Amino acid sequence: xxxxxxxxxxxxxxxxxxxxxxxxxxxxxxxxxxxxxxxxxxxxxxxxxxxxxxxxxxxxxxxxxxxxxxxxxxxxxxxxxxxxxxxxxxxxxxxxxxxxxxxxxxxxxxxxxxxxxxxxxxxxxxxxxxxxxxxxxxxxxxxxxxxxxxxxxxxxxxxxxxxxxxxxxxxxxx
Length: 174
Known about the structure:
The protein is mainly alpha-helical. The protein has helices at 4-11, 25-31, 40-48, 71-84, 108-120, 144-159, and strands at 17-19, 55-60, 88-93.
């Protein structure tokens, strides 16, 4: 992504998929073992050129010297995702034997739990792009506790891209 011609060519693709398996250069060397000058910060800067119009692909795995679910690694990775704002995120894990011994995979459930904060923020991860929040009904009340719930509902609505209002059909709206 440091080559302008490569970036220009990738921008012509309908769905460019850009890969980042680790949130730091040392972790990337442990996972991918690049044989050239490689810096995660350079990769991120290259991805920024797409202004979010790409799919970010990340492989989650665990080994003796790296674990994608490690809170430090995971928080760093999610911070990068928030900065890049890709239109979709694909997470996957090892699916077949690898030449490197000692690599472990994650279950689909484990990966879903790892990315749950991003899903809740509205990121599209493997096709999941909606977050439904059941909030308190919005009405006038003197109850302090109920008022807190109503305030939270209003706050959630202000942050939402789409608000769906459900009404009980047995009540007359007139």
